[in-house]
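no rush on this but wanted to send it before i forget. theres a chain ive been looking at and ive put its sequence and its fold in token form underneath. please have a look and point out which stretches look like helix strand or loop to you. thanks a lot i owe you, the record is right below:
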Amino acid sequence: MKRGKTENSQRFDATAVSDEVLEAASSKGLLRRARRDVEAGLVRLSGWDGGTALAEADGESVRLIAGPLASARCSCPATGLCRHILAGIIFIREAEEVRPADEPGAAETRTPIRAEAIPDPHAEVLSLKEDVIIRAFGRAAFIQAQTLLAALEPGGIKIESSPNAVRIVLGAHPPVLYPAGGGPAGMLSKAAASQRAALHAAALLAVRGPGETAAGAEQAPQEPGRATSGTLEDAAALLRDAARQALSKAPAGLEERIGDLVLSSRTEAMPRLAAELRTIAAMIRRRRERLDAADPAELLVMLARAYALTEALRASPDEPLLTGAAAEAPQPLPAIDLVGCGLRLWQADSGARGVTGYYLSMDGRSLSATLARGAGSDPGFVPRQAATAEPVFGRSLAAIAGSAFRLEGASATGDGRLQTGSGRAEPLKAGWSAAVQGIEGAVIDDWKQCAIRLSSAFRPKLATPPRRALPLILRPAAFGSLRFDGVAQVGRWPVRDREGAWLELEIEGDERLEAHFALLGSIGDRQSPLLTVLAEARGADIVLSPLAFGTDSLTLLDLPPPPPRTTAQKPSLLSRLTKSFALPGVPERKPMRFEALARPQAASQRLISTALDEILALAELGGRMEDPERLQRMQRLGRTLDEAGLAFPGNLVGQLAAASGQTRADRLLRAAYALNLLARIDPTLPFVRLLP
């Protein structure tokens, strides 16, 4: 009797497999063919082998085993779930009575055995522990799942439970089904094979909800928005280990340790620190894969900044600016008038891609809205199409990128990121140009004033995350020649202010460069449009890139208007400057040539740069970072910094040189942060001068 009960408890139960599950596991067309086979009488149940159902479908032998559908077997040469397996499941499910065989190949018994109750799939998911999910999909997929969930817009998770399955939809990703009794291995979706593990793990985590991890369940509840000392100590120790390993070996184990800490519920109260750690983990992976974007100096700066943040959080665990709680949580916005400053199509080194629109409010605050997808997710998402076709605030990003509008019912994070899931935009009657003029100080025609504004905006502050980008509206008095920089592989475009100073804009050297050159070259001599640009920090420098131009309305560089049908056009400024004309009696007009305006570097800045180079070289040694000769040079360099009036960084460099192997990583990160702060305290703009 006991043996019979065990067999029945592991018996294949077709009633738990709905058509929705079968379609998700195969296709709608294959399911229709299987049903036609059943209706044509080509399927029969031949018996039971313990808990395994034995069926024949159109001459093929089918074995249906309890558990994931992938465990079903068929004698036909097809791989995966064929129409014979689907037909066998449909036939058994729709039979009036289902009886197991007394022994393999025997006829059906006369006494029907009651099928076990179908398990509750939602309760199944809630019962899954974190370690079970990690074992099922792998730690790397588990980390990717957390990243996927973090990138979803509010309201982007939809969960529908039925007696047979749980259906989970995560944003624009393919729906995921968790069939009853199938376990993680039995989950189904139409996702690409390379992305399936991460998506399925994310679906399980979405059903379990925040704070449902095993680690979180074992901990006492913590006060929201407060950093815990234990987590900060773990993060600091991890960053010290990263200082010893990340720049020399970049081991995968270090990346996994960072991922584990980020994924634990302990970092929920510190979204800013979690974001810093995620960025560091991604940089370590790029460095291990030897990608060009893995700049070791940038990684050292990231480690030092995150380490300084942990120290600040220890001193002020309740400070919202340090925890990031104030910046991350979207807050409702009152009705606000905005001016579009253009948009940008982008693709990150990780493979993520999207489109971001930039806006200025009437009080000069900058905001942005983004539509994006992670690497490998939603192959049908094309940023250019999304910019023009996907509604945001009731209109497309392209429609509001170059217009003035009133936004009502929207929400935004503390750093100005608009939430695209709510709000409605209505155009202002005044128009774009009039709205721009109504913003005090919005239009800049003096590049020195522009430098002062950007220097203040991008000056590093520990109390706020590094500023990503800032839209500006410029009024150039003249335009220089467009040229391609073969060394940097970007376009260059000098523009002059009313005082005669020249500033060089940078144009991305990708497949859009030619179209951008054509648009910018169409600006005539007599035309003096406004120019919207995006300012971004790159180390100690600020890079300005054009987004759009216009007078009454904006022409978007990344979404140019369709070409006019007429063929007769006035030669553009670019063609007139780059082509040579040999006319009798008229001197040939040569392209304008520029060179970078050298900025006198103070002796203190040279010392800071030298100290940072020495620290980076020491970190790249790894381990205990032992190099007696370099440490002696750093000892002397510390004294020189002190004599130059930089006592604090000089003291830190001296402490690093004298530190033991056990404390050297701590001293290295402290010195690196202080020196980097001084190096970036006065960001520079790309000023150029016109050559005679």
Observations:
- Confidence is low (pLDDT under 50) at residues 1-9, 96-117, 211-225, 573-589.
- The CA atoms of residues 340 and 400 lie 6 Å apart.
